[in-house]
Amino acid sequence: MSDNLFAEMFEEPQNYYQETKPSTTEYKTKNNQIIKLNLIKKHSLWAHCLWNASIIIAKLFEEEVFSCQNKNVLELGAGAGLPSIVAALLNSRMVVTTDFPEDEIIQNIKKNFEMNISQKKPNNYTDCLRLDGSGIVIVAFSHHRPYLMEKDLKFFDLAKECGFIVEHFSDKNTGPMFPKDPGPVEIRSVVHVYTLKLPEMFDVLDEDTWIPNGQIVPRNIVHQKGFFHGSVHIWILNPKTKKVLIQKRAKRKIVLPDLYDISVAGHISSGDSELETIKKELEEEIGLILTDELSKNLKKIFQYKVKVELNEGKIIDNELANVYLLLMDINDLKSFVLQESEVSEIKLIDWKILFEKLKEKDPSFCPFQQDYLDKLNSEFMKVIENEKI
């Protein structure tokens, strides 16, 4: 027996497949850029096909349902490498693309990159990519053999046993990948998309001292049990124009979707500082880099205890919020890059108008307690009266 057990595992009897020639195909991006892809000759692993699932993932990347910008992207079972190429074109930090360790497949992936990524060729892969609380695994597949559906879905049971949070994200009818195969065509025609995430871990805080009590608990348990945990609220204000930057929460958000909210906010993950969280949330949600110079205009203005039940009591959000004010001379919003899975829109609004809308519980805005708004108004007015950045 050969040392290469994997190679023998996928070997087919001699002349099982008729010899075919390599082919090419194209994918048009939403910006009308043509991505040309070489496909290898017929292969036992079906690497000669451009899979429907890869097209679905590429489109999700393009639509920024899953943002690739400044992210590390690892694609397994890449085939022709379409999602990876799209990710690279969307300014990901690093793209690692791989498949079954067969030279013909790997070399074809490299060739496809070279044809489509002229100035941004992938770096050599020298280290493992770390999946942390903000990372996500996207699994797209079809039940090509419906009688094996139960075994297909067993993968997600195993993922849950390993601690992943599994969510059924979407289904898309693309037509069957292999029309002549047996089994119900309505089952074989659907590309299913699931996401796997490691749970974000929070330090449980003492309600009175705001000091971690030693417990580190997954986000979902924190919200089920109502444990107190830390967060940051960053309000961005131009004191000269008296306008505040606000964001609109994405429609896909589980909590308070499609409502106007704080400029930027986020939970403090276990082990992270307030400043680390602020930098991360500013960059992820609106593409703003908190430079050393800009950080001089960042000030913590008060702390506030948030106690609220959301989604019919399914989420008990007890936060110890650290509220910050960031002063910026903003007039043009074009430089901001939105994380569309979190933020659908940003706009500038006069603080007095915003204050009145929040005070009157305008239904298009997230709700805030009156004493929170009064504290915020007091701090804002101090800055506005000075009209200084």
TrEMBL record:
Q: Which GO terms describe its molecular function?
A: isopentenyl-diphosphate delta-isomerase activity
One biological process term from GO is:
isopentenyl diphosphate biosynthetic process
Which InterPro entries does the annotation name?
Methyltransf_16, NUDIX_hydrolase-like_dom_sf, NUDIX_hydrolase_dom, SAM-dependent_MTases_sf
Please state every residue range assigned to the domain named Nudix hydrolase: 227-371
Look up the domain of life of the source. Eukaryota
List cellular component terms (GO): cytoplasm
| Protein name, per record | Protein n-terminal and lysine n-methyltransferase efm7
Which classification does the entry list for the species?
Eukaryota, Metamonada, Anaeramoebidae, Anaeramoeba
